[in-house]
Each structure stands twice: as structure tokens, then as C-alpha cells.
Amino acid sequence: METERKTLDDRSRMTELERIRHSCAHVMATAILRLWPDAQFAYGPPVENGFYYDVDLSHRISPDDFEKIEAEMKKEIKANHTFEKIVVDRDQAVKDAQSGRLGALSERPNNPSKFKLDLLNQIPAGEPISYYKNGDFIDLCAGPHVMRTGNIGAFKLTTVASAYYKGDEKNPQLQRIYGTAFKNKTELEAYFKMLEEAKRRDHRKIGAEMGLYVIDTEYVGPGLPLWLPKGAAIAEELEKLAKETEFAAGYVRVKTPHIAKEKLYLTSGHLPLLYVESMFPPMELKESAEAQVAERYYLKAMNCPHHHRIFAAEPRSYRDLPLRLAEYGTNYRYEQSGELFGLMRVRSLNMNDAHIYCTPEQFAQEFNSVNEMYLKYFKIFGIEKYVMRFSTHDPARLGQKFVNEPELWKQTEDMVRNVLQKSGINYKEIPNEAAFYGPKIDVQVWSVIGREFTLATNQVDFAVPRRFGLVYRDKDNTEKTPLCIHRAPLGTHERFIGFLIEHYAGNFPLWLAPEQVRVLTVGDDEALISYAKLIVQELRASMVRAEGDYSADKINGKIQQAELAKVHTMLVVGARDMQAGAVSVRLHGKGNVGARPKAEVISDILQSIKERKS
Ligand SMILES: [Zn+2]
Ligand SMILES: [Zn+2]
Known about the structure:
- This protein has three domains: 8-188, Threonyl-trna Synthetase, Chain A, domain 2 (Threonyl-tRNA Synthetase, Chain A, domain 2, 2-Layer Sandwich); 208-285 and 296-504, Bira Bifunctional Protein, Domain 2 (BirA Bifunctional Protein, domain 2), CATH 3.30.930; 517-610, Rossmann fold.
- 36% of the residues lie in helices and 24% in strands.
- It has 19 helices and 28 strands.
- α4 (90-98) runs antiparallel to α5 (114-122), α7 crosses α15 and α12 crosses α13.
- The longest helix has 21 residues, at 360-380.
- 36% of the residues are buried.
- Residues 302-304, 355, 486 line the site of one zinc ion (ZN).
């Protein structure tokens, strides 16, 4: 959230790259002021792939201005000014803001630093107030920065957008200038090359070309993808993988409705306040004409509350635990229309969900198995780079952002940390970002071209089972509350398939390919067509998504069409192949790999699918 200030603690953890980028925002402000001395600056934080600075200025900055801004920035970097920290008291800071000196190159008596004045008011009493000065530019900032402007290795301005001050539309609209910076030119160039490749692999573009999904905003609604047969085939394969893996790991499957009464979410704590903005508005329903009050029903935004009621549906003993309830549940979340983005940000989500109810003694083993399941999936999909971000609570915010259970926080965080350390998994600990009800792990993966995605979350919950009054009877015959692990290693179909499209550039491995095999005849001789049809039938009998192209068109044209459709394996059959009981195999993007006996080829295809070879 934009209005949520970074704490000093957050700032102390800024990485070197974030420092470079944030420092570059100061340099950009310096340059903009050289060109437009009236500019008023608001927020200028580092962001995921760079930085921005919000500016209020009558001139509308466009990408045409970037060159001259960048030229001024280069001068500032070349001058190699130090970022000098100046600690001041509040009265001095207010005076300087009123004289227009903050976020400026000099005093501007008729132009007070209005946003900086407002930001000053947000600094809690007792927290030190500091400026950072580079050359003539002085900014209200808690840092940190790099030592000198010359430490900014390479940078580039990227876009300009508009943004309300503090994200609130009642506030003035500002211009948000984005840029990025890196340690050196090589890294900067690699980044833009990666973006170029990501554009080529854009899941919306490839999704449309391959006919995987459509979003019918007019009749169905924005953010509600319709899976076309080819996209559904991929989703079904992913579900099959999840079901097999979870079955082997001792999960049981459940199914729950898409709506539930308000009471369910009041009990879970998602309503009235915590999650209400992410839920669709309720439906009101009277059970009879005489009924005095209408019941409110909500579309489910998460599966957990339903699963908790399944846990509660029968008496549970310690012998029943761990109980692992799995469901590819469909959730509906309200996202603002401006936030919707292809398959990546949607309003209906098919989630690879499960909730594991266990005793504290079982926790480490269960949690470790979940992590191992992630690693197994990474291997199948050729995901080589990943990190698990382990988010913990902040003791200072117990009872506000985090449920007030200091002992349970400590216990569960220690358990999670132990599991992560022992397993040797690549993880990073991030304080103050846990979920309300327990520590969580966000799993980030990198696609083959090096773009980062947040795929899934893995959470420990020690609070909500209690709210639902969930209990099991323990060995000592007392009732105890189970711990709950929320996990969704394949995330949602929407986001995961969006990721896979980019990862594979649409060239899916055989097991995932929407059209796995196409049999192409050389000519339309009747005997040849019969031979080809038999092959298609044999493949389809083994659930292989195989099609035939028996037209009289030239074989080269038929191959070209199959290539365009990204069909994984093409089996070309001519008169000579037929006589020999063979087929000529072509692989998408790789070309002809030679003629082989039909039975052998079919058996290889089945084997490759079964093993989910990459
Ligand atoms: Zn700063
Ligand atoms: Zn859950």
C-alpha cells in the first residue's frame, strides 16, 4: 500500500540494487528540477523492477522529454556528488518545507514543498527526521542511498503514468515517472532484452494465437476467462498431475459449493472488514415470501472456510490426523477493473488448494512434505530458479496487523524456520509480512527467460481453526485445536498457465501440449487415409490428444499449419511408410527426426506423456 510508510527496519533491509534505484530517483528529481524548477515531488520509492517519483508539474512530461531528462541525470552522475545525510529537528524541517527547500534545488518562497510538509506529518513523533543532499538537491528522506551519485551504474527512464497522491482519488493527480537502474550497463541491457523476449512470449498474445482462452467482457464479464478446448486441455493435465501427486501423498479430495452464507465468512474473520473489498457484493435471498429477513450469500473468495466446516462435520481424533483435504476450488475475487491483466489478474480463480490439519508434533513433517512437493513440481516444469520468501510477524503489531498470540507466533515461526534450514531449500526471511493468522511462505519462481513470478503461497494458520471451534480428541482424551497448513503449489490455473505460456513460449512439452499429435497424409489416397485414421484411433484410445489432417493439400503446407498451431509431434505418412508399417516423425520446432515403425513411435509417445518428460 502506498500510504503505508516503510519503517526504518524495512529501510535497513533495502538491497544494494534497491538503493541504487532509489538513489536514481533522487537524481531524476534533480534533473527534472533543472528543466522545470517549479516541480513538486511527493513519493519516490524503489519498486519491483526499478523506481518512480511522483511529481506535480504543469508541463506534461512525455517520453519525448526522457532524452533531455536523462542528459541532465548523466551530468549529475558524472559530478559524483555524495549523498549527504543531514539530521534535523521537526521545527527546522517544517520551516524548510514551507520555504520550498525540500525536494528542490534551492528555496522557492512562493512554492512551499506541500507534499513534503504532508509527509513530515506522517513521521511518528520520536522518529529522527533526515534529509539527503546530492549537489544542490535536498530531499526529505530516511534513506538509504548509495554513497555517491557515481555509484549508479546504468539507468533508463521507462514510462510515465498518472497516479493520485497516496493512491486516493480525492487527492491531486500527479505524474509518475518510472525508470530503472542497474549496477552496470551489461545488466541494464540484459534486462531490456529479457523484456523484449517477454513481449514476444506475452501470454495474452500466444493465448489468442493458440486459442487457449478468451475473455468475453461483454457477455461474461471482465476478469472471467473462458477456457477454450485447447486451454482446458492444459488445465486438465495440471489437475491430473496434482491429483496423482496428492493422492500419493495421502491427501483426500473434497468438493464444496461456490457460495456460502455470510456467517461462514464472519466466523473466518474475512468479513466484516478484513477481506470485504476483495469479495463480490453479497446476494440477498429470502427462503419464503413471509420471511422477515433476507439471508446474505457470498461467492467464495477462498476455500478454507468451507474446508474448516468439513473438518467440523465429523468428530475427529488424533488418529485421524493429519487430515489433508484437497480441492481444485473455484474462487471469485473482486479486483478493480484497472488491475485486471490477462490470466495474471482475474476475478475467477481455479486453485490447486488443500488444507492440512495436524497436531503440533506432526507439523514439521507435514510442512516439509509440502515443500518437497513444490520441488518435485519445479523439476517437472524445468523451473531452475526459485526462492521461498518466509514472512514473519512483527511483535510490535500484535493485535493489529497480526493476531495477538505471541507464544503461538514464536512456536510456529520456529518450526517453519527449522524445516527450511534443515531441508536446505533456498529461502529468505522477511519480517512484518506474515498473514494475519500465521507465518507464510510466498513462492517465487523465474521463467526460463528470467522473469519473476509469484506463484503460490504456503501458510501456517493457528488462529482460524480456533475461531471455527475445530477440535480433535488427543491421546490424553482432551480436546485440542489443530494447526492448519494452507498450500497451493500450482497456484491457480489462470496464473500458472499464464506463467507456463511465457516459460515455454507456447511450445509445451508433449504431455501438456493442447494438440499432442497430428497425423498428416501425403496426398489423399483412400488406403493411406485409412492407415492414418487407424493411427489416430490408436492414440486416442490411449487418451492422446491426436488429430488427423487427411486433405489433398501439399504436405509442406500441412506441416506448416501444424507448426503454426504448435502441435508437438507430427506423424507424416506416405505410401512407402504405409507399406513398411512406419511413420515419419517430425517434432515442432525441431523438424524431421526420421521414419520408424509405427508401434515403436506410439509406445514412445505414451511413455513420454506418462513420464511427463520436458
Ligand atoms: Zn531517498
Ligand atoms: Zn486456505
